[in-house]
Design brief:
Blueprint (H helix, E strand, L loop, with lengths): L3 E5 L9 H7 L14 E8 L23 H12 L3 E5 H6 L15 H10 L5 E6 L17 E7 L1 H14 L6 E4 L8 H12 L3 E4 L3 H9 L5 E7 L29 E10 L3 E10 L6
């Protein structure tokens, strides 16, 4: 693997194996600014123009995802290993089918990192939280039966009702945990975050998409860090009117005075086509000139 380190100002709190620390550098999280909720990070790949998906190009042999690399795959497992749980939107599940059509389980593939998570960090089986306010989820997808992960569904009141009959019919009531936070079909993200921390002990949460979910977290100031893979390609505009190619930051809109800023924590690269940023949320900035 050709991961190269340019800069790293991270806290040094995780007991990384020596050879991994030599490759990545120190890694850790600061004390959370708000102890009532998890420390929330995100991980996306995006092109030079910020777009995160060739969304409209379904069923193509060359795929609709932004170019990845083996280094990006390892870093994804690295981040999953250090978080108590992962969060993914239901639309991401539907839009990212594997070749068999039953989706991915978001489990750690690297055996060394999986063992490190379980034995050294004591975090056990990965918790993967799927967010769906409507409860419109096919629980036959791979994630809900994979032995590698523990699936949860975060929904709202109407979504809970929609899910209840499906889970009972398929005999999944005991294997899939559901949390209802919010009225109708809209999940209250701030309340959900507090519930995860205070009642379920989730201290660190990794958001893996999609852009709409991330944008909502950012809008509600629930993002603490971004991990961004920059693929050195330009996606451009959609080839189909009405189906946008999303940016990694969803549909949020800011003015110069309200635009949130991030501070660089680390920078890695893999020649010749990928760079990896770790960025920490700082909020709006005031300039003197």
């Amino acid at each position: 693997m050709d991961l190269q380190l340019c800069y790293n100002a991270s806290e040094d709190t995780f007991p990384l194996p020596r050879h991994i620390k030599e490759r990545y550098g120190p890694f850790g999280f600061p004390a959370p600014a708000d102890a009532r909720r998890p420390y929330i990070t995100s991980n996306f790949v995006m092109g030079l123009d910020g777009r995160a998906s060739f969304r409209e190009l379904k069923g193509r042999n060359d795929g609709k995802t932004v170019s990845r690399s083996k280094e990006d795959g390892w870093l994804m497992d690295f981040l999953r290993a250090h978080h108590d749980a992962q969060l993914v939107g239901a639309s991401t599940l539907r839009e990212e089918p594997n070749p068999e059509g039953w989706g991915w389980d978001y489990g750690i593939d690297d055996e060394e990192l999986r063992t490190y998570r379980q034995d050294t960090l004591g975090l056990g089986r990965q918790k993967v939280l799927v967010l769906s306010g409507s409860g419109n989820i096919d629980v036959r997808l791979r994630i809900f039966s994979s032995p590698r992960v523990e699936p949860w569904i975060i929904t709202a009141r109407e979504g809970q009702e929609n899910l209840r009959s499906q889970l009972k019919r398929l005999g999944c009531e005991e294997t899939i945990k559901t949390l209802s936070v919010g009225e109708g079909t809209r999940v209250d993200l701030a309340a959900a975050a507090q519930l995860l921390r205070q009642e379920h002990g989730i201290r660190t949460l990794l958001c893996e998409g999609g852009p709409t979910l991330y944008g909502e977290l950012l809008k509600h100031q629930l993002i603490d860090e971004d991990f961004r893979t920059m693929s050195l390609q330009v996606l451009g505009e959609s080839t189909k009117p009405g189906i946008d190619r999303p940016t990694a930051y969803g549909r949020v809109s800011y003015t110069p005075k309200t635009a949130p800023w991030f501070r660089m924590i680390s920078l890695h690269y893999a020649l010749p086509h990928h760079a990896f940023f770790r960025l920490r949320y700082e909020g709006p900035r005031t300039f003197q000139d």
